[in-house]
Amino acid sequence: MDCNFPPYFVGDEWVAVLQEVRSLGYVPISDGILRRSSSRVVLKAKGPQGAEVVLKFINRKREMGFIHEWDLPGLLELPHTLRPLDHFISSSYGIIVFPFVSDARPGQSRTTHTWLRILKQLFETLVVLHENGYAHLDIKPSNILLRDLRDKIQVTLIDFGLVEFVRCEPSDDWSEGSEEETVDEGTETKEENAQSSGVGSSGTWPYIDPVYIETNLPSVYCDMWSVGIMLAQTIFQRGAFSTLFPPLSERSSDSILAQAKAIPEKFQKLLLQNPSLVIEQKKELVEIAKNLLVLDQKQRWSSHTALQKICEMLKELSIKFR
Question: Which fold does the domain 12-99 belong to in CATH?
Answer without folding.
Answer: Phosphorylase Kinase; domain 1 (3.30.200)
